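Um, can you check?
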Amino acid sequence: MKKDKYEMVTNLNMATFLYASDAVITGVRELSDKQKGFCFLETDRLQELIWTYKFAEKDDENLLVNVHKLEYARRYLLDRINE
């Protein structure tokens, strides 16, 4: 039986980029009174996206995300942390 693994992200901007890039979010956890963690399903693609977000050059086309998807992702995640 395969057990799924998860990656926790606490940076809202990174979580927004990942979600807008079609990474699978599995939940939002409260880590402290002022900090939330976004859980994503661990995949090779997720690791590529995280690396791209952290280390890619500013003109790297892998950083490009549809602005409507980005806005939706940000609203969705903000709604989830304010539940």
